[in-house]
Amino acid sequence: MKKLLTLETTCDETAAAIVTDDLKVLSSVVASQDELHQRFHGVVPEIAARAHVERILPVIDEALRKANTSLQELDAIAVANTPGLAGSLLVGLMAAKSLCLALGKPLIAINHLHAHIYACKLASGVDVFPCVGLIASGGHSHLYRCNAPSDFVYLGGTIDDAAGEAFDKVASMLGLPYPGGPSVSKAAVNGNCNAYAFPRSFLKDDSRLDFSFSGLKTAVRYAITGSATATFERPELSDRQIADLAASFEEAVVDCLVGKALLAARVQQLSTLCVGGGVAANRRLRERLGQEAKAVGVDLHIAPLELCTDNAVMGAIAVERFAAGKTESLDLDFMPGLVRV
Ligand code: KG4
Ligand code: ZN
């Protein structure tokens, strides 16, 4: 049995896991930075990078301790090196390279987006490939044709903000706490999703598989302020208004994500859909995907809640590269931008 240490520092979670080559999870540690970014209503890249520096070694130590494993017993070290925030990626990559150099162990690269989809395979235990992959997170909202764990073809995605970014900013506008996804979702439970007619970009256009959530954010703002004014003052909102705004916004995002994911399955003639990323934790999205995938005969795999938001367990995708002999040299670089394949 081979053991891999997987590291995740692409955004604001510092995470490490020990996984085996037969996909057993021996330990998983996630140090969230939510409390550091809360007062800014979003991730501040420089704060995230500095917090990773402070946390990465204790997180690795904790993962080793929980797995009852020593550094010497590891067979390889894997790290997410794309896409993500530059300063954040750098910390994980340098930690991984340093360990590889000191211990003489092989280095494996993880594509963070591929890993989000791999979480579905890990959880279901079945081979989900080929499938349509929908990744909806704070940084990404993209659709892929996933032929194999490392063979993704970009089908479309957001042309501006990611779905999670929209949740975070709408939460801020409604005076709800960060991270916005869970708080908007909670407020939406008691709301009327038809109270406000918010836009669903590109939804009726069957010729494209893109998303746009920036106009939706603006529409929510105008609904709150009552007009297209430049003021950022937030008028006093009643609990009912907050619930209705949250529910109407959430439904608009869900309509787009569900509609385009199932369109991608139809266009690509694929009958499996895998969904990952922080927004995949959304209660209403999970409910609607479940109903609508079933109605059209699409086999749906959504990452379990603990594997939706960033974690290092999904880095077990590195086992596939390790088995194929795909290791990296120590001059491996990080790539913050989205690599479309
Ligand atoms: O995948 P993730 O942890 O980080 C990135 O790779 O971006 O996703 C974080 C995002 C945040 O924007 C957060 O608000 C959103 O996922 N999120 C949710 C929910 N839980 C987290 N969005 C909607 N509903 C949720 N329940
Ligand atoms: Zn992520």
State the distance separating the first and last CA atoms.
31 Å
The CATH class designation of the largest domain is: Alpha Beta
Helix content: 40-55%
Q: List cofactors, ions and other ligands.
A: 5'-O-[(R)-(carboxyoxy)(hydroxy)phosphoryl]adenosine, zinc ion
Low-confidence runs of at least 5 consecutive residues? none
- The overall strand count is 10
Order of helices and strands: EEEHHEHEHEEEHHHHEHEH
- CATH fold group of the largest domain: Nucleotidyltransferase, domain 5
Describe the SSE topology:
Layout: E1 3-8, E2 13-20, E3 25-32, H1 34-37, H2 45-66, E4 76-82, H3 86-103, E5 107-111, H4 112-124, E6 131-136, E7 141-148, E8 151-157, H5 163-173, H6 180-188, H7 214-225, H8 239-268, E9 272-276, H9 283-295, E10 299-302, H10 318-323
Parallel strand pairs: 1-4, 4-5, 6-9, 9-10
Antiparallel strand pairs: 1-2, 2-3, 6-7, 7-8
Bound molecules: 5'-O-[(R)-(carboxyoxy)(hydroxy)phosphoryl]adenosine and zinc ion (ZN).
